[in-house]
Structures
1.
Amino acid sequence: MTGAMRAVWSSLTAGAGALGDLVLPRACAACESPDVSAGRLCASCNIRLLSLVALSYCPRCGTTVGPYLPVGDDGCPGCPATLPRFARVFRLGPYTNPLRGVIRDLKYHRRDTMRRRLGHMLGQLVAGGTDDGETAPQLVMPVAMHWRRRLVRGWDHARTLARAVARELHLPVGNELIRLRNTPQQAHLPRSRRIENVRGAFSVRKAKSLSGASILLVDDVTTTGATANEAARTLLQAGAARVTLAVVAKGEPPTAYAQHAAGT
Ligand SMILES: [Zn+2]
Ligand SMILES: [Zn+2]
């Protein structure tokens, strides 16, 4: 069992008993089955989550790769021609259920259980993949949301997720990265327009505090990587030494993972 899979197992009990579960009706966060076993998921979604987390993926672009394809720090054959500015990506799995439902729960319900569970799993994944002292992150930061969107939604789910990951890693959460423009959501745009849409969307305050820092950037989903890439570019330009990305899920065509995922 890999470190990531162990983290899923241990997370089955890590969030149990949180206040949200005591006061709200219990249902599986992914398929809404009333038969919740642990960590706000039903037994079959928990098993499916394990099979997603077990998939091999490219550390540069986050895309699922076959278990026998050797993938190094240079990336996979499917990596974009211009590699992203973040040094590597950690992900729990592809953007499909139950992770799709888990992210919906994180975004639209302020429940502690799922946030703690995701923070635990992502934190363990990062801790297991960054043994080298030079590359280990020193500061956790969410991919910043524009204040207007935060006002409409009521909270910033990427920031609450970043806090949960930081707690797991015993690291501080930085607020230096800010979003200047309230850009149209990337999901509503064709891939070709996503890079242009986020160009210049971020800025930093207190740039001095970022000098030479190794930063862990946290978000719920990455698809083309354009938003995270622009955030990483902004942080590196402000003096950060290294940016690593940690996401719950990677949006990719089902053909990328269907043949490798058990039970799909
Ligand atoms: Zn379920
Ligand atoms: Zn790749």
2.
Amino acid sequence: MGRVIVIGAGPAGMMAAIFAARAGARVLLLEKNQEAGKKLLLTGGGRCNLTNTKAGEDLPAQYPGGGRFLHSCLARYGPRFICQFFQDIGVELVTEEEGRVFPKSLRAASVRDALLRELKSLGAEIRYCQPVRKLRLAGGKVAGVASDSFYPGQHVILATGGASFPATGSTGDGYSLAQRAGHTLVPPKAALTPLIIEESWPRSLSGLSVFAQGQIQAGRRKLKSQGQLLFTHFGLSGPLALNLSRYLEKGAAVELNFLPGLRGEELLQVGSTAAQSLDRFLPRRLARQLLELAEIPPQTKNLNRAEKERLEKVLFAAKLTVAGTKPLEEAMVTAGGVALDEVNPKTMASKKTAGLYFAGELLDIDGITGGYNLTIAFATGCAAGSAAGSAAAGEVLYG
Ligand SMILES: Cc1cc2nc3c(=O)[nH]c(=O)nc-3n(C[C@H](O)[C@H](O)[C@H](O)COP(=O)(O)OP(=O)(O)OC[C@H]3O[C@@H](n4cnc5c(N)ncnc54)[C@H](O)[C@@H]3O)c2cc1C
């Protein structure tokens, strides 16, 4: 029986190690931190939004980076498979609004600990404080990996994550390891990152969260997205801003509709002041701010045509200018990574180096918020682990 070496004990690496062991291989998991899953513990505000059951057939469309590549992997190891897997290893789940799935404990640690228990019961070995620095290659094949020690092995899964939140251990080490093995790197950049806004008025609403719709120009396409929007001391965050961020750079415009689904004529109540009318639909602070932007005193009754037009503009199409996005280090996810056309979409095997596999955020894949990024870590981990594990388990060792 051969051995599979997995580099990185994040969600992708732990899942890959479990599936390699279940396929019958011996497994060694090398992690550079003193503990597994440091980033996993931060997910979902510590509650771990581990997958999402809403999208159904549209699941690949939730990945602005890599959706097409994911079809077969998600068909096999998608949200339903992931939910069943966690229930089988003793993690009770709850599904919240918009299909977002969490552990019933609402503690990310219960997900991490269940993965570690399963690894232990399968006899997989984990070694901590092992920063892998080198892949040894021989004749176009993997021959082993080196941290402080050298570990020989012909089946290696790289699951070192992206380059965001580097304090968790995800410092982009896998990029240079993959490049040394002949892979092309799509330049890593921030995705799911907050927006710094030029205009000052959003800052005065810092801490307020509202449902809104955002529209931007992404190349030739107009993109619309809706969800919660959080005003911050530098601009905008929350799922709506995060999901649009990968398309935006300094100078870009964002158009916000604070009342999607409502029409202008439904807004103003006869006999009420402008403030009273808006308070029916919006938080008071936002309503006052929008009235100020439209230059309408709150106590105004019977708005004239020009006032109505100005009000509709700020309510349904408020324009903001992006001064920049928060850097990669502060992004929730890294877009870019190992180029997908050099990876087998069913097995996550390298098309460049025999015996090498990839899993998780290291790949050029990024999803929207709502559990879709952990879904990919888990699904690609299953695919890579099963393939590497079967290949290793079928090996006959002599001597
Ligand atoms: C604050 C925050 C909240 C998030 N919330 C959610 C959420 O609720 N739902 C969701 O779907 N996604 C969420 N994400 C995204 C999600 O956490 C990542 O997509 C996911 O962790 C990626 O998994 P991974 O295993 O590929 O990489 P990582 O989780 O980054 O794990 C990589 C592991 O590899 C190790 N490693 C790196 N280099 C080496 C090396 N040279 N040698 C050995 N080990 C190495 C690292 O120490 C780390 O343990 C969130 C991200 C952040 C930052």
